[in-house]
Amino acid sequence: MASTASSTPSPNGTLNSAIPDGPLPEKWTRYKAKAKLINPANKRKYSVIVVGSGLAGGAAAATLSELGYQVKCFCYQDSPRRAHSIAAQGGINGAKNYQNDGDSVWRLFYDTIKGGDFRAREANVHRLAEISLQIIDQCVAQGVPFAREYGGALANRSFGGAQVSRTFYARGQTGQQLLIGCYQALEKEIAKGGVKMYTRTEMLDLVVVDGHAKGIVVRDLTTGEITSHAADAVILATGGYGNVFFLSTNAMGCNVTAALRANKRGAYMANPCFTQIHPTCIPVSGDYQSKLTLMSESLRNDGRVWVPKSREHAAKIRSGELMAKDIAEEDRDYFLERKYPSFGNLAPRDISSRSAKEACDDGRGVAKTGLGVFLDFSDAIKRLGRDKVEERYGNLFQMYEKIAGEDPYETPMKIYPAVHYTMGGLWVDYNLMSNVPGLHVLGEANFSDHGANRLGASALMQGLADGYFVIPATLPNYLASQKPGTVTTDAPEFKQVEAEVKDRIAQLMNVKGTKSVDSFHRELGMLVWDKCGMARTAEGLKEALAKIPKIREEFWKDVRIPGSPDGTNMELEKAWRVADFIDFAEIMCHDALAREESCGGHFREEYQFTEKDEAVKSGYTNPGEAMRRDEEFAYVAAWEYTGPGVPPVLHKEPLVYEAVELSVRSYK
Amino acid sequence: MNLTLKVWRQSGPTAHGRIETYEAKDIPAEASFLEMLDIVNTGIIEEGGEPIHFDHDCREGICGACSLAINGVPHSKEAGITTCQVHMRKFRDGETIWIEPFRARAFPVIKDLMVDRGAFDRIIAAGGYIDVRTGSAPEANSIPIGKEDADEAFDAATCIGCGACVAACKNASAMLFVGAKAAHLNILPQGHPEKDKRVLAMVRQMDAEGFGNCTNQYECEAVCPKEISADVISKLNRDYAAAIVREAVAE
Amino acid sequence: MLKKPQMNALGTSLLRFWNSSIGKKLIVAITGIMLVGFLLGHMAGNLLIFQGREDLNDYAEFLHHMLHGWGIWIARLGILGAFVLHIIATVSLVQQNRAARDSRYACDTTVQAPVSSRIMIWTGLTVIAFVVFHIFHFTVRLDPDLAGMKDPGNPDRHDVYGMVIAGFQNPLVVIFYILAISFLCSHLSHGIASIFQTLGLRTEKTRVAIRNLALAISVILWIGFLSIPILVATGGLKDAPATSSASSATPDPSLSQN
Fold first, then answer.
1. Which candidate among A119, A600, B193, C138 keeps its CA 20 to 30 Å from the CA of C5?
2. Which residue of A has its CA nearest to B43?
3. Cα distance from C175 to chain B (closest Cα, Å)?
4. Are C107 and B8 within 8 A, CB to CB?
């Protein structure tokens, strides 16, 4: 495990996580002290491609340009400011301990490891916790308007069940404010000429030359033109794959293409089955639905989650015969408070989500579709008064009313879990480099820091840590071994990949079938949501693995893409992405099937505590809770693509815990 | 519900555009406006036509991509929302709805209802930032900022860069956008050192992009999905006047 | 050696100021203040007509002898300069604005812009036409009957009082005055509030006060200026000895010739 910082994993060899030596709290400091450097005068000779302009990509592009590298940055949106990092509401963690409530880098590290159900790499997580301090400094200096106390100091809140107040926030728009700070830094570098920005440009493939990632092939979404770009290193910061489920809280354009293409070019896909289901989203209302809307988790601070105790009552609510207020107090099941008395409505995301699903599967759901539970503020309004509740949640209530058409002051909100974040992603080592040398992966697109479940307010932290502070320190480690500018787009590999991309577009356009792209995406999404969503079984996953090839076959036979590939064509864009989602779904299901345990966002029904288990008998946990199997599964599952229609090959990176002791997560 | 749509169709940046009529049938009242367009597009695709192109991404009112003028008003006449937050229950069965792109010379049409708002990025690049190198930031709490200043800066910082302000202005002025960014950064102490430089550079870039001038009608604040007040324009005017005087007299 | 580049730099700054959207607007605002100030003074002077012939004619005489007769020309040039700058800047702004919005919505509508703000250029252009007419009417006095009127109490001086009352005997003139002054006040109701916005004085606290102030000044000017032609036309104000009636909404004693 422990090896030198400079080791380079080979594409087909064993996984070398390149974790530096030394005690955990000193690894990052030692790494930086020993890391290779590039002479300032030489930096401008190196070029770097950054795909994605969210917190991770934008921060990386801006910072690398500040350092002197020539950066090309790509995003599919019309402006880097629109990357989906913008939608994060809650906040960003930073172990500043401004509240003097006992927080520390160690505690943030430990909470993250434990929250991730002991499936993350210790060294990476500790580094993340250390960097969390610098991120807050950096963002404040950029003008991010974090909430403040009257005295002028930064305010904090406790978030997502954390026992300390370490979350910095900017009303319900923290992601937006952080991204705008990052975007402004990026635009500043664009104006200075250090970054060349390509908006409305989507990466369609990775180019690997002599085993090293040296470029990408992109499509200009406005003109349809296919072009190649070469660089000394490639950084993917392309976000998560939540849209494989069709309905998620991700933006419509979020996709897995860059990561999947990299996977097909040799990079391993790690832990794809670790997907996070967020408990507080507005329930689906019909088949036309295009996406799901998240309601901030902060609502659970004062809202009480419940369903009726009886199925009859629930049925009558669904049919409109009864209203929530008609159900007497003793006929209500506040299931989170009942099952997790000490955490109550603030139980972690995976646990809260699964409990809601269980209640609905039991026939006690309250939304029209049967998939929804109440989030009730009537007690909070009684206790605090309407004004106080309005002050805390006014904008969220408004947002809910706009979408659902019901007034949460009068009648409880209805919520249901939805796919929100994906912990899995391309495998990277401590340098954030994948097993394909030169290919670096940041933010949600990599797998590294959140294990099997991500804590609230940690996604923003990780994206910015990777972009602002990790990659600028680790990239030279790779670049120093490379002579700058050796590979250009004249290399035959570029011609080859470009031809493959053009060929695939022609294939898609030539199907000329009858069904819309969305219809396939919806079909795929429903299947994986059903079989590889909140609860999974070997049987269901096998069924999904049998059905996905059929969807693929049908897609390539019957999809209809109108218009021409030369120019703006949103159906073509979607088709390419959906084709990749189909391939990706297979890897995800393979991973879920192979991981015969329950942990974090991955819940295998076969592996849960029952009355017979000692932990239940002793009262430590409840029956139905996730059962981790550390002896067999304390590893990172990294999947190698071996060819079309062939199951991927599993590589394992064992997770070695030196500093923490693995324990059963209990939030009872 | 059934609706008649009058939609701007334009096949490319240089093509001639025109209004075309579509019937939107059996639209659920719970659907969002963009989901209504999804349904119409599915119908168009099934009939072999090219779907109506429009920009959209997060569909929760924060990314700023969606940009339709609905019945002549950017993001519809409902206050404080983006196009993607408009829901069909706000329309009457049988209604005729006009759907057009955001119109301004500085926002050229790309296709149908999609426009190019790159001018906004270039204005930010000109000076809409605080120049702080990564890693050079002082300790976050070393710069106390009173809650009132922080709140005021925040109100301005909520801009999502959607361009509705420009689209609603009969002069296609970008003053609310520029004013919001200038106010956000100028109010904060971190932004003071570059205040004059920022304001002058952003206004010059705004003018160079071909946006019009503010005639104080405040249509911009009426359609702003984040309800940013036109007071930020007043502040921009003030900051600009001070900056130009200092620029003129300084060595 | 040092001086010259500084002059150039100052020149560049001024040119940039003029060429910038906000710079031009600041010029419109500052000239607007001057013009509003002039209008208030002019109206106050006009209202002396209600004090009678003596006071109005005294006032006119005073204006023409200020600073040995230089005063009125300084004022005239100042106001003319402001007026011309105001027009050049606004016309240029309007041209830029039209160019900036080169296509219109098929469904064209507004949400909150008041009518007065949408017709600024038209009310402004009407005011120009009116000012030209008004200067020829009461200042240059193209009509020899008006030009030749002498103060009955002091035949050495011009009878402004009588001229105003005679001038408003023509109903078409009165109607034009009413129309033009109404347009002017519509222009001002938006213009005065805009001055504060352009100068950066509009804030959350001052917003309502500014709107009310703009409205109040406009209404006062409207009543003040129109009271004279209307009262003359309706016979409420008469030339004491003779037939016709009284004063003018606009005739500007300060601008009328001696």
1. B193
2. A516
3. 30
4. no
Mean residue pLDDT of chain A comes to 93
pTM of the predicted structure, to 2 decimals: 0.94
Residues B72 and B163 in one domain: no
Q: What is the mean pLDDT of each run of 10 residues along chain B (251 residues)?
A: 97 95 95 96 93 96 97 96 95 97 97 98 98 96 93 96 98 98 97 97 97 96 97 97 89 59
Q: Assign C108 to helix, strand or coil.
A: coil
Domain that holds residue B26: 3-111
Nearest residue in A to B191, CA atom? A143
Residue of B nearest to C104 (CA): B103
> What's the domain count of chain B?
2
| Domain's final residue, options A396, A420, A444 | A420
Query: What pLDDT, on the 0 to 100 scale, is given for residue C258?
Result: 40
Quick check: A77 and B57 in contact, CB under 8 A?
yes
* A142 shares contact with chain B (CB less than 8 Å): yes
Other Cβ atoms less than 10 A from the Cβ of A654: the count is 10
Dist. CA A602–CA C24, nearest whole Å: 63
Q: Tell me, yes or no, whether A428 lies in a domain.
A: no
User: Which of B65, B184, B185 is closest, CB to CB, to A82?
Assistant: B65
Closest CA of chain A from B128, distance in Å: 6
Task: Classify residue C66 by burial, with Cβ atoms within 10 Å: 0-12, 13-18, 19+.
Answer: middle
**Residues of A with catalytic function:** 349
Write down the residue that tokens 């999609």 correspond to. B114
Contact B154 A170 (CB under 8 A): yes
- B126 shares its domain with B98: no
Chain A positions touching B147 (Cβ under 8 A) are 148-150, 152
A113 is a domain residue = no
Report the C-alpha gap between A241 and A238 in whole angstroms.
9
Going by their DSSP bridges, the two strands A304-308 and A332-333 should be labelled as antiparallel
**Residues B244, C200: C-beta atoms closer than 8 Å:** no
B208 touches chain A (CB under 8 A): no
Residue with the two structure tokens 């003139």: C173
Residues B87 and B123 in one domain: no
Chain A contact for B26, CB < 8 A? no
The residue that leads in pLDDT, A511 or A163, is A511
3-state secondary structure at position A531: helix
Say yes or no: C204 contacts chain B, CB-CB below 8 A: yes
pLDDT band for position C9 (cuts 50, 70, 90):
confident
- Is the CB of C2 inside 8 Å of chain B's CB atoms? no
CATH number of the domain encompassing residue B105? 3.10.20.30
Same structural domain, A412 and A314: yes
Domain boundary among A372, A396, A420: A420
Range of the domain at A564: 492-627
C7 inside 8 A of chain B by CB: no
Touching check for A420 and chain B: CB below 8 Å? no
**Alpha-carbon dihedral C224, C230, C231, C233, rounded to 10 degrees:** 150
Which candidate from B71, B207, B233 shows the least CB-CB separation from C107? B71
Domain assignment present for residue A455? The answer is no
Is the same domain home to B122 and B45?
no
| Chain A neighbours, 3+ Cβ pairs < 8 A | B
Would you say A183 and A58 are in contact if contact means Cβ atoms under 8 Å apart?
yes
Whether residue B237 sits in one domain with residue B197:
yes
Residue B217 with chain C: CB contacts under 8 Å = 110, 112-114, 117-118
CATH number of the domain enclosing B135: 1.10.1060.10
Residue A614: CB atoms within 10 A of its CB come to 9
CATH number at residue A593: 1.20.58.100
The edge-to-edge listing of strands for the beta sheet with A304-308 is: A275-281, A413-422, A373-376, A304-308, A332-333
In chain A, positions 620-659, which contact chain B (CB-CB < 8 Å)? none
Domain count across chain A: 2
Residues A414 and A497 in one domain: no
pLDDT for A202-237, tens place per residue?
999 999 999 999 999 999 999 999 999 999 999 999
Q: Is residue A97 part of a domain?
A: no
